[in-house]
Design goal:
alpha/beta, TIM Barrel, seven-stranded mixed β-sheet, four-stranded mixed β-sheet, 15 helices, globular
């Protein structure tokens, strides 16, 4: 058992002074006002222990496209991406994923839900991305994408039988891994056929997991296929349930949102990506009022362009103020939950909270940092002003993976050089 303490620890929505967090086998055992007897204690001093952020959506393999597709409309962006990513080999994917995950860790994210397309030629590339996550030390939910749309090209296309067989093999390869969860992730109703969508849902039921899919990220995507609305298709096929993590969900009607709430829908909200494409600002309060659980995601570095969850948290908060024209529309602690405990609810993992039984995934924030002054209003500063330089340390499963601005478990030098080569025309 290991024990951690600091001048402040965030528990159940508030900062408490001088709490002691005990960790056993990667999980929190207790949080107490006095140290457990006979144990050595790591004391972070003038610092706050806060839950690591939970990123509910990204595409790690797109890191090399950052800055090169910034001003394209969605359809043109999609075409550009699918022209370039089939060229990525196993090493390219590893470099992109390693840097994506490292950037996330350095800015305070301890769990990330990835969404990986390039499975048309087998599992080699996705296994390379997973290896990068293991090497750097982040907790990973890997969504294995099912696609068969012509526009995706052979690098992404699979038949139903092949996709299911490869999914089972990937799931088996990482069964029982302490930091890796494998989930089905069909691209979208316009990127995957009914057979693939139904198979993904069935696999989620079989393995008792979530499944992930882009939904209503644009007006055309919400309009569905062959004149049938996307949400209607999912309902008609019996696969709209509380297992589905719907990504984006910015173009559903009020009535469709009511129906999503009726099944206790789960949504990954990606404010920076939505703004990147000039889409809508969603009504977070209205979603939650309907019974829809919403958590935060960054999307990829090709459509954000960063993996900084706390930067996106600030953006999300300001967007809600703008939409409602009300600075009090949503509270600071509700916003903090969007990046932490709500991420646990949406992913279905014991993450995003400092509580007994949860994974010991947390960040150590330097409360003397200029961006966090005056420290008496620390919760507000985490939403609106904290810079990554204020994050002194990052722990995943009780293991130190970042300290004072350095990733400790992986050397990024080769990946930096490799992704530089990829970014050149």
């Amino acid at each position: 058992m290991t024990v951690f303490t600091a001048s402040m620890v965030y528990v159940d929505g508030s900062f408490r002074p001088n709490q002691y967090v005990s960790v056993h086998d990667g999980r929190i055992g207790s949080i107490t006002e006095t140290p457990p007897g006979g144990e050595g204690v790591t004391d972070f001093g003038d610092a706050a222990v806060f839950p690591g952020a939970v990123n509910t959506h990204t595409h790690s393999h797109l890191a090399s496209l950052r800055g090169s597709v910034d001003q394209l409309a969605f359809d043109d962006w999609l075409a550009a991406v699918y022209r370039r990513v089939p060229k990525l080999d196993v090493d390219d994917v590893y470099a992109s994923a390693l840097l994506t995950y490292a950037e996330a860790l350095l800015s305070g994210t301890t769990t990330t839900a990835d969404f990986f397309y390039l499975n048309g030629y087998g599992n080699e590339r996705i296994e390379s991305a997973i290896r990068a996550a293991v090497d750097v030390g982040i907790r990973l939910v890997m969504g294995r994408t099912f696609m068969d749309a012509d526009w995706g090209g052979p690098a992404t296309q699979e038949t139903v039988d092949v996709a299911v067989e490869r999914y089972r093999a990937l799931r088996e390869a990482f069964a029982g891994h302490p930091r890796v969860e494998i989930c089905p992730a069909p691209h979208s109703p316009y990127g995957a056929s009914r057979g693939l969508l139904e198979s993904a849902h069935a696999l989620a039921v079989e393995y008792d997991s979530r499944w992930y899919m882009h939904l209503a990220e644009s007006e055309s995507a919400a309009a569905g296929v062959d004149g049938v609305r996307a949400l209607d298709l999912l309902e008609e096929w019996g696969i709209l349930t509380d297992r589905l993590v719907a990504v984006h969900v910015v173009w559903l009607s009020e009535e469709e949102l009511d129906r999503l709430g009726a099944v206790n829908g789960l949504v990954s909200y990606n404010p920076a990506s939505n703004l990147f494409f000039g889409e809508r600002i969603v009504d977070l309060v209205g979603y939650e009022r309907r019974g829809i659980s919403v958590a935060l995601g960054t999307d990829s570095s090709a459509s954000n362009n960063a993996q900084n969850m706390f930067a996106d948290l600030r953006l999300a908060a300001l967007c809600q103020r703008l939409r409602a024209r009300d600075p009090a529309v949503i509270g600071v602690n509700d916003m903090l939950a969007l990046a932490t405990s709500k991420g646990g609810s949406v992913t279905g993992l014991p993450v995003g909270r400092l509580a007994p039984g949860h994974f010991a995934d947390f960040i150590v924030v330097d409360t003397t940092h200029p961006s966090l002054q005056p420290v008496e209003r620390l919760a507000s500063h985490l939403v609106y002003s904290m810079t990554p330089q204020a994050i002194k340390g990052v722990y995943v499963g009780g293991e130190q993976v970042v300290w004072e601005g350095h990733v400790l478990k992986a050397d990024l030098t080769e990946a930096v050089g490799g992704i530089g080569e990829l970014s050149r025309p």
